[in-house]
Specification:
With 73 residues, this protein is mostly helical. The chain has one domain. The protein is built from three helices and no strands. Helix 2 crosses helix 3.
């Protein structure tokens, strides 16, 4: 994990699929679990989705709240 990865989760939007346009930090757990079972995409997106899965799975989504921009979303 890189130092900026948590901030990227609240800034990057899902580029495709059912949840296209939604912030990575706001993707539902079942969607993240699907990637965990079937494979994360290559590159930064896959790495960030895997990190978000771990945060969700361990009930740590609240760590991202202070990084969110008020009124954005």
């Amino acid at each position: 994990m890189e130092a900026q990865d948590l901030e990227k989760l609240v800034r990057w939007r899902m580029p495709y699929g059912k949840y296209e346009g939604r912030y990575l930090a706001d993707l539902p757990g079942h969607y993240l679990a699907w990637f965990a079972r079937n494979g994360f995409p290559d590159g930064d997106l896959g790495r960030l989705l895997a990190l978000m899965f771990e945060l969700d799975h361990n009930n740590l989504r609240g760590l991202l709240d202070p990084l969110r921009i008020p009124g954005d979303g």
